[in-house]
Every structure is written in structure tokens, then in C-alpha cells.
Amino acid sequence: MNKVAFHTEGELLSAIQRGDQQALGSLYKMYFPMVIHFITQNSGTEQEAKDIYQEAIIVLYEHTQEEHFELTCKVKTYIYSVCRRLWLKKLAQKSRFVGRIEDFESFIPFTRDDSEAEDKDEQFKTMKVAMDELGEPCRTILEDFFIHDFTMQQITDKMGYTNVDNAKNQKYKCLMRLKKIFFSQYRGS
Q1: For residue 17, what are the contacts with CB-CB under 8 A and spacing of at least 6?
Q2: CA–CA separation, 189 and 6 (whole Å)
Q3: Calpha distance 178→74 (Å, rounded)
Q4: In CATH, what number does 9-104 get?
Q5: How far, in whole angstroms, is CA 20 from its chain's centroid?
Q6: Residue 47 to residue 24: CA distance in whole angstroms
């Protein structure tokens, strides 16, 4: 089998953005079992799961084509959330959905309270400001590690550190600095 491995989600998303059919095929196989389980456990059929999953892949592909698209969660989380919302919408249209959306919170947690959502939004805004204030090279190191899933070896090579331990030490210092900036701004707001 001619399978292409994508080492990071960033590589996978770049390949999808280019329209790489192998990347789309890989993505299609990666998370389908999760989606089929969710849909078949919630009044759906395997064919409906395939249709919903295909729609979610198209949504992701279309978003990657947008100029300023930036995925702020794991691809798996994004796909699951899109599938979940599409399925719940379809169930509501078919009137087969007799419960409330909250009944399915065990599958993926959603905010229960508007004030909780507002607090999370405020935390994200504060974190963005803190990341902007953090500056380089800390911003790049933390984004590469936490968002782009780079290994410490990849960061060491990219940033030109002499060894992985030096890169880990720098990442720790950056985290402590980010934490200090974040909490000083968050408590101050």
C-alpha cells in the first residue's frame, strides 16, 4: 500500500490546502470510525455517517482555501465538531431527534453556561495578547510545540540550538514568561 505519512497536522493541512488527493484520502480514513460510531449510536445509519463525514471533509477543505485560515484546535476535534453539528441539524430536520443537544454532552463537551463561554473567550483573547507581547523566539517555540506539534528535536534544528536540552530549557523559560504575562493581564482585566 502506498501510504503517505504526515508528521504534523500542519503538514497534513498544507497538503489538503494544495488539494493533495493522498492527504484527503488519509484524512478520510483517519477519523471516519469515530464519526460512524457517533452517528450510528444516535439514530443514524452507516450511509448517513459517510454523507456527514464527506460534508465535514469538504468544510475543512473549503476553510483551508481561505486566505487567513488558521486551525485553532486539533484536526480530529474540528472534524468531530463539524460532524456533530451537521448530524444534530439533520436529526432536527428529520424530527427524529427527540432529546436535547445537551443529552449528547458525553460525546463532546460543550459550554453549558453563557458566562462560562464568555470567560473562556476572555481567556483566549488575553492569551492572544500575551502571545503577541511575548515576542520572539518564545512565540515561535511555543507555537511550534503546542500548536504545530513539532518535536523538541525539530525545534532544536529549526531554532539552531546546540542540543535538545537547551531547547527544552528555553521552552520552559518561555512558558514561565507567558504565564506571568497572561496572569498579570487576566487579573488586571
Answers
A1: 64, 65
A2: 41
A3: 22
A4: 1.10.1740
A5: 20
A6: 19
The number of angstroms, rounded, from the C-alpha of 87 to the middle of its chain's C-alpha atoms is 19
SS3 content of the chain, % helix, strand, coil (to 5): 70, 0, 30
Provide CATH code, domain 114-188: 1.10.10
Give the pLDDT of residue 117. 62
69 Ramachandran zone, left/alpha/beta (phi>0; psi -120 to 50): beta
Instruction: For the chain, list residues with pLDDT below 70.
Output: 1-7, 95-118, 186-189
- What pLDDT score does 189 carry? 56
114-188 has the same fold as 9-104: no
Cell of 95: 424530527
Return the SS3 of 148: coil
Against a cut of 0.85, is the pTM above it?
no
The pLDDT score that the predictor gives to residue 105 is: 47
At residue 2, the pLDDT reads 41
CA 180 vs. chain centroid, Å, equals 25
- Extract the C-alpha cell encoding 125: 483573547
Residue 165 CA to its chain's centroid (Å): 28
Contact 130, 140 (CB under 8 A): no
Task: Kindly list the domain boundaries of the chain, sorted by start residue.
Answer: 9-104, 114-188
Specify the residue for cell string 476553510.
63
